[in-house]
Design brief:
By secondary structure, this protein is an alpha+beta fold. The chain has five helices and eight strands, in the order αββααβββαβαββ. It has helices at about 10-20, 40-50, 60-65, 115-120, 140-155, and strands at about 20-25, 30-35, 75, 80-90, 95-105, 130-135, 160-165, 180-185. An eight-stranded mixed sheet has the order 1-2-3-4-5-6-8-7. Helix 4 (about 115-120) links the parallel strand 5 (about 95-105) and strand 6 (about 130-135).
Length: about 190
């Protein structure tokens, strides 16, 4: 990282507020946009309620909101956090967006919010050069598998899968393997 890449916190927050806020389409009252630090604790509570997602520390969600707001999506309804996508661009792979977590509040499930947040993310001007989306999904997480396979169909993009992390890679933590799902290349990217 070059020293010119560092930005003062107030400048970063101003940049976050300039990111587009989108309507979530057919989901009444839901707005989508970049998260800010003020959303961090609410995002932590949301992910905690979204089993089987792995819960990270509140600090990790604050960092995502501060450092990766341009590649994360916050969904809000009536002032309440109802969805969150955490994502980032892997170093030296500017053509890839890696989706880390997709969390949707229980009362919002089945309404298309997860797909709307992924669309919002992929349609951001700053991500135009991304040709692939990658994510990992546990074999038992069928809703996430359907979400990403549906997104690939919608975007008319190829989809491949391979085990990225085996259960043994997690050491003494009892964790399912994580399958890497790769979607792309996207048309027009």
């Amino acid at each position: 990282m070059k020293s010119t890449d560092c930005v003062e916190s107030s400048e970063m927050q101003q940049k976050h507020s300039m990111l587009k806020t989108a309507d979530a389409g057919a989901i009444p009252g839901v707005t989508l946009g970049a998260p800010s630090v003020r959303h961090g604790a609410a995002i932590h509570r949301l992910v905690d309620a979204c089993k089987p997602l792995d819960l990270n520390s509140t600090y990790a969600y604050l960092l995502l909101c501060e450092h990766f707001a341009g590649t994360c999506v916050h969904a809000e309804r009536a002032g309440r956090t109802v969805g969150f996508v955490s994502a980032y661009r892997p170093p030296q792979r500017s053509d890839v967006i890696f989706v880390w977590q997709v969390a949707v509040a229980e009362e919002m499930r089945g309404q298309g919010l997860a797909r709307a947040m992924l669309r919002e993310l992929l349609d951001r001007p700053a991500l135009r050069e991304c040709r692939h989306l990658e994510t990992t999904v546990s074999p038992s997480n069928e809703p996430s598998r359907r979400l990403f396979h549906g997104l690939a169909r919608e975007r008319r993009a190829a989809i491949t899968e391979r085990v990225l992390f085996s259960g043994q890679d997690f050491g003494s933590e009892h964790h399912e393997s994580e399958t890497l799902i790769r979607i792309g290349p996207f048309a027009g990217a």
